[in-house]
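We modelled the chain as a single entity of 272 amino acids. Its sequence is:
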Amino acid sequence: MRFVRRRNVIVTVSVLVLVSFASTAARAHANHARLGVATEIWIGTATTRGALAKIDPDAATGLLGAPQSITLGEPVGAPVALSWPSERRFAHDVADGSVPSSVRIVLYDPEGWLATPPAERRAPVPAMLAFGALARANGYLPVITPHPSLMQVPGATCGEMPAESIEAAYLRCGIQAAAARAADIVEVQAQSLETDPAAYERFVTDASAQARLANPGVEVISGISTTFTEDPQVLVAAWRSVRGVVDGHYLNVPQGTRSNVAVAFARAVLTA
């Protein structure tokens, strides 16, 4: 199984402005691209923002303090958004009233990890649809970030076939389409491909097109991580390869790993 990194479960949004697009294909979407940090969705954990701020406060604020930025993990006392790796747990929390009244946005992150229950790992599509329906019924804005590792779960209702790449299986199984039908924002977790910009672009473009065919109004973001490289130019190349294809990015700097790389990336993005 490819690398899977668990995210913080509490998320807070600084400001989130949703803008819908009529395009149903990523290439067509690129022709109407909203370029620039101020018009992109940027997601990062409080740990990431804090790690960047220790090195360059302006870079941290410029990227993760942008108008549509989402900071995961702040403030602890009154979160605007929360994240669940389990639809079943989300339904339980809604039913027993344990979701804080301050919450407006809910995020579901199903992956091939222990945090997602076996049934949801094996059959992620109905779980995502159930999460989105329950979220909307309770007035929440749903965000879904399915990981390609779901294609390698033993006993999956739809998974990787012999000689098939995990990305091809993900697309064939319609995972991004299902997420888009259930959510207002979806992520293409393509970060493991970022050292190969051409492969990164292909997967993000195809997954984005699939999402928009299922839901023309969905906002699509792609993953970028310091997990896979020590070279900030690798991240820059991945970011550039999908400018105009996606509406933003999730910047993952797990536990502050290689925060200097993230800062250099942020500076490049802010001056592009």
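As a brief sanity check on the tokenised model: The beta strands are 10-13, 41-45, 70-72, 81-84, 105-108, 141-144, 185-188, 219-225, 248-252. The mean pLDDT is 87.
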